[in-house]
Amino acid sequence: MRVDPNYVSGLVSSLEGTTLTDQQLSSELSSGLAVTKLSDNPVAAGQASLLGSAISQADSFVQTAATTQSMMQLTDSALGSVVTQVTSAISVSVQGSNSTNDPTDNIAISAQLTNIRDEVVSLANTNYQGSYVFSGSQGNVQPYTLNTTTMPATATYNGDTQVGTVSTPGGAQIQTGIAGSAVFSAPGANVIQALNNLIADFASGTASASAAEDVGALTNALGNLSQQRATLDSSLSRLESVSNYTQTDATEMTAAQSGLMAADTATVATQLSSTETQSQALIAVIATLSKSTNLFSVMQ
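Below the sequence we write its predicted structure tokens.
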């Protein structure tokens, strides 16, 4: 019996094709990936690459936001402590200026106000991971230095007025800090100077006539301090919200990327079974033909 060489050649080519398909399907089934290289599916691979870039950008923002939130929370905590200290100073000063204290009591009030002032200055010099939070853009510079050689004492701000910002994935800017000059030594609302003045008002043992006026100045400074803190809290809330949204978005993009690259295991298993059946059928046909004639001689 003579077998058509072209027919046999076609069977062999079909067997080679099904073998390659079998290998591809087996690989997809074991790895769970339908796309492992660009040539597998150029469109899906391209889309996955774009998603990868977006995911990387989102992850970078979330990491930056986490560090920035920690710094802002520390800043907010410091401002909260300052509010407590200033409120206490106002209470002490009002009590001292509205009563007939003896010199010893007034000197004690001056000492108490001095402790409060020193704590406020310390809080104004709050440091986060080696950077001063109230120095504006001059993070390596201590914001305030205090000169107690004069009466009243004076404080010097050594930072600048620039504030930090962070860019969201959408391109928006969120303020992340507050310059000390806007919080502790703002024109007309100078917390430290008002405290220094009150310390001097009671230091001699006799409450100065300007004590009530200085209490008013400190009260006004407290209002500005609270307003600046509210601004920071608003920015912190906004940053947390954007970060949470971005993290959720990154999770969804990761799932979409996996969907583009993943194989449908149920479909692949069905296809693999069909391919294996086809391969076995081709092998059986070729084996039958090889019994009828020398297959290698036919292929020559």
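The domain at 63-249 is CATH 1.20.1330.10 (f41 fragment of flagellin, N-terminal domain).
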